[in-house]
Amino acid sequence: MRIDILAAVPELLQSFFSFSIIKKAIDKGIVEIVVHDLKDFSKDKHRHIDDYPYGGLAGMVLTVQPVYDAVETLKQQRKYDEIVFPTPDAPQYNQNAANELATKENLIFICGHYKGIDQRIRDNIVTMEYSIGDYVISAGELSTAVIVDSIVRLLPGAIGDEESALTDSFQDNLLSPPVYTRPADFNGWKVPDVLLSGNHKKIEEWLTEEAYKKTLKIRPDLMD
After folding, report:
1. Cα 126 from chain centroid (whole Å)
2. Are residues 142 and 215 in the same domain?
3. Any domain includes 201
4. Could you tell me how many helices (H) and strands (E) the chain has, helices first?
5. Distance from the Cα of residue 173 to its chain's centroid
6. What CA–CA distance (Å, rounded) separates 15 from 55?
7. Could you tell me if 136 and 190 lie in one domain?
């Protein structure tokens, strides 16, 4: 998989992609992630990529030209399956969306910034929009990083135990059950006996039951 990211502040992504699972996936050749500075595509002599919004609204807006030219430049090099724009005013991102994006070959992410981006980018360039939550953050690079991480960890070979990703929360519309490790007794806080029993059938039944109980308590909407 190749992921191209168009960013107003590319420096925000450098550290994130230099560690942990993503770094290992890059080193293994499982994914190629290229971050592009939108200012490099600006035709403004000062490399500006934002301007005041029409209508007298407050804030600054990411302009059309740098984004359009960046996308067109990339499209000349390869075919892209989706052009993704993370934004608060979009459908909620979830595990099903991550699973779908993980099946793609080439993706472009456009990082929003300032007050937002010119609506014409969304109308004519973007093919998918997602919100990572009902709140606003200062840089689209951060929401892009969250989504990219959720995709990369699903790619075959990205994590050591691939079965682990299949038992994460939301993979089966349930929250994951509680997990424990050694010691079995710490300060009188004991691991449930069933997990120490070695009876795999009973352990599986217990894990499923706990997942349902946890989901019903914390996220009953998922049970619908």
Report:
1. 16
2. no
3. yes
4. 9, 10
5. 18
6. 38
7. no
Distance CA(188)–CA(185), nearest Å, equals 6
For residue 102, give the amino acid letter: A
Instruction: Give tens-digit pLDDT for 28-80.
Output: 999 999 999 999 999 999 999 999 999 988 999 999 999 999 999 999 999 99
132 DSSP assignment:
S
pLDDT per residue as tens digits for the range 181-223: 999 999 999 999 999 999 999 999 999 999 999 999 999 999 8
| Single residue among 129, 152, 175 that ends a domain in this structure | 152
One domain, residues 20 and 129 = yes
**Counted domains in the chain:** 2
Global pTM reads: 0.89
SS3 (DSSP) at 107: strand
Pairing of strands 128-130, 189-190: unpaired
